[in-house]
What does this fold into?
Amino acid sequence: MPPIAQYVFNGVVTGGILALPAVAFSLLWRLLRFPNFAVSTYLTVGAYVALMLNRGAHASIELAWLGALVVTGAVALAVDRIAFRPMRARRPFSLAIASIGVAFVLENVVRFVWGNDFRSYDVPVTRAASVAGLRVGRDQLLILGVAVVMMALAQTFLLRTRLGIAMRATADNPLLAAVKGVPTERVIAAATLGGGALAGGAGVFLGLDASVDPLMGAGLIISVFAAAILGGIGSAPGALAGALIVGIMEEVGTLVVPPTYKTAIGFTVILAVLLVRPTGLAGARA
Amino acid sequence: MTTMTRRELLKASGAAGLALSAPAIASAQAKEPIPIGTLCPLTGAGGSYGPDMQRSVIAVVERINKAGGIHGRAIQLFHEDDQTNAEAGVRAARKLIDVNKVVAIVSTWASAVTLAVKPLCVEAKVFLIGVSGADAVTQGEHKGYIARTQPNTNLQGRMYAKFAVSRKEWKRVAYLALQTPYARSFGDAFAGILKAAGVTITDDLIYEDKKPSYRSEVTRILATNPDLIMLEGYTPDSVVMAKDIYRAGYKGAILAPSFAINAKFIEGVGPEVAEGFWNMDRAPLFDSPAYKEFSAAVPRTDQSPYAPQAWDQMSIVALALAAGRGEVSGTVIKDQLRSVANPPGTVVYSYAEGAKLLGEGKKINYEGASGSCDFDAIGDILSAPFSVQQVRRGKSELVQIINP
It folds into this structure.
C-alpha cells in the first residue's frame, strides 16, 4: 500500500485545477445572484481555443494558455451581454435555467467547429520525479503552481484594487453600491471577464492533464458546484478550500471504497459538511 | 439509389450465371426467389465496416445463384442501412420482415441494433445472425433464431488470458477496466485462466468514466507491482489512463483491446507513451481456404474482422436452407444451423462444396473465413482466432495469431 500522502498529493493537484472554475463560479454567483452553470463550458471553450493555437497555429502551450485566458474571457463577456444582461431583473431561477441553456449552446458550437472526438495538445508526456517518496509530475507541479498564483492574484485584486473593492461592495449590497456611485455594469463586466479567464485557463490545465473533448467541462460541473457550496458562496478562499477538500476526498476515498464510487464520495462529504455548517466553510458572509 | 443499383446488378449477374448452367434454368426461373435481408451499418459509427460486410454477402450470393441457387431457387437480397442506430435499425428490419418477407437477416453490426431487432425477428420467426459482441445478444429466450460469429466477452477474456499465459515473463497481472456492462464478465474469464496457470492477479480495479485524472487508481494498481496491466477500456479513457500510467513511471507491459488502441489513441498519447502497447482483436482465419476465396472475391483496404464474418454468415444461412430439403423459412435455418456448421461431418470451406455433399446425403461441417464457425446451444461461437498487435514506432504491427 503506497503512503496516504501520495493520494493527498494527487487530490491537491485535482483540487488545484478545480479551484479556478470554483472561484469564478462562486464569485459570479454572489455578484449576480444566480448559479451560472455556463462556467463549466468556459473550461471547454478555453481548452479548445488553446488547442487551436497549439495544434493549428503551432504556438507554444504557454502562449496558447494566455490566448485561452483572453478569448474565453471575451466569450464569457459576450455571453453575458447577449444572454444574461437582458434578464438581469429576472428571478435567479430563470437565470440559472438560462445558463444551462447557454452551456448547451456553447458545447454544441464546440462540437460543430471541432467535432466530437477527443484531442490532445502537442506536449510530450513526461515521467514523474520521485520527491521524498512521493511521485510528483513536473506538469502537475507546474499546473498547481500557476493555479496558486492565479488564485493569489484574484484575491489581491478583490482586496486591494478599487475595482475589486467595488465588486465586493456590489456583491454585498447592489442597491447601496449603485447609490454610492459604483458603476454596476462595469463591475459585472470585469467580474465576468475575469471569471471566464480563470475557467478558460483551468480548461487548458485539464486538457494537459487528461485530454480535450467537448464534454470535459460538463463532466466537472458537479465537482465545481460542490466546491463552491462547500466553501461558502462568494468567498474566493472558501472556494479554494472547498475545491481542495473535494479533490482530496475523492482521491483518498478510493482507499476505502471502490473507485467506481469516486463521485459519490465527494457528495457524501458535502452532505456531511452542509449538515453541520449549512453556510459552507467561509460561513457567515453567505 | 445505391442499393437499387446493387440489386439490379445482382439480379443481372445472377441471371447471367443461370444461363450458363443449363439444367438449373428451368427450375430456378420457375420457382420464386428466396428473400434474404442484409442490415449493415452503411453510415454512422459502423459506417467504415458495413459496406465491406454487404459486399461480402453479395459476393457469396452471386456464387450461389450462378451455380443454380438453393434447390433451384435463386437468392434475392434486400439491403437496408441500419445507420448504426437502434431506431433506424428497427424501422429497416420491419420493412425487411413485413414488406420483403425475408427468411433471414444477416450482418447486423452494433450490439444496440442487434438487441433492438432481436425481438422482431424472434416474433416473426426470422433468423438473425450478426457480428455484435454484447453478452445480452444471445441471452434470454430466443428459440434459436439468434446467432452470431463474433466472440462474446467471456470468450474474449479467455483468449486474452491465453496470450498472457503464453508470455512466460508475465507472472503478476493487474486488471484495470472501465465500468461497462462487460467489464465483470471479461475480467472473470480473463482472471480465471490466468489463476489456473499459476499467474497472480495483483489487483482488480473497475474505474469510472469521464474523470479528469486517474492518478489514484494508477497509484493503487502500481503499488501491487504488476508486470502486466490488462487495460480494458475505450479510447478516450484509455488515453487519460495511459498518460497517468506513464507519468507514474511504470515500465512493465500493458495489454488492451485493439478497438481502444487505435490510431486516435496513438495520436492522443504520443508515440512515446504508446510504444510497446500490446493489443488484441478477433482475427479472420488467414490460412483457411475459405479466407483465401473470400479475400479474392472481396478486395478491401483494411483487415477488420467483420467482412469475413459476413461472408460466413451468408454461407451458413444458405447451407442451412440447402439442408432443409426444399422448405424455406427462418425455422429451417435455425433448426439446421448446427447440423451444417458444427462437427461431426466432412469439413467444407464453401457453399458449393457443402451443397454437393448435402445432395449426396452426407453430413457437413462448414469451416469459414472467420473461423471454424461452431455454435453452442444459445448461438454463440465456441472459438475464434485472435490477432496480437504491438505498437512499434507509432504504429500497431501484427505480432502473432492466437488460434483457439
Observations:
- The longest helix of chain B spans residues 2-20.
